[in-house]
Design goal:
By secondary structure, the chain is an alpha+beta fold. It is built from 1 helix and 6 strands; from the N terminus they run H-E-E-E-E-E-E. A hairpin with a 5-residue loop joins strand 3 and strand 4.
Length: 154
């Protein structure tokens, strides 16, 4: 016979099991606790419907500094001009050239528009950037997804 207390205990146990599973899955999706490198970059962005992003940065990896080129194009509700300064940690980096590629947003802790922001980005090689920074200027839409990073040779 099922009593309200038994049903409630079963519900609580099921909810606890689901929460534990979700937490374990989330923990597995996170990059390792120790970053492989750090990154800093400055972007300049301007646009009216079609936006362009350009800038430069520096990858700090294995006691070396690697200059970076950063760019991208966006379509949609982009209006304004802004400068964005970001710093962060790099995960899953085996060699400096792995930093290259187009990054898409994995998650965001807050929008970059309107001051400070946090984003997690990943390229096709599995390199993850966890960056934060600030925006200077007026931009209705800031989206770091589709960001192109390359090593500058020279």
């Amino acid at each position: 016979m099922t009593t309200p207390t038994t049903t409630r205990r079963g519900f609580v146990a099921t909810a606890a099991a689901l929460a534990a599973t979700a937490a374990a899955t989330s923990a597995q999706a996170q990059p390792s606790a120790t970053p492989d490198a750090t990154i800093e970059f400055t972007l300049f962005r301007a646009g009216f419907i079609v936006g362009g992003t350009g800038g430069s940065g520096l990858l700090h990896f294995k006691d070396n500094g690697y200059p970076l080129g950063v760019g991208g194009v966006s379509f949609g509700a982009t209006i304004g001009v802004a400068r964005i300064e970001m710093t962060g940690e790099v995960y899953n980096l085996k060699q400096a050239s792995d930093i290259e590629g187009t990054y898409t947003a994995v998650s965001a802790g807050g929008a970059v528009a309107g001051g400070a922001g946090v984003a997690e980005l990943q390229n096709a090689r599995g390199v993850k950037l966890r960056v934060s920074g600030r925006q200077i200027g007026l931009m209705v839409s800031i989206d770091l997804s589709g960001l192109q990073i390359s090593l500058r040779r020279g």
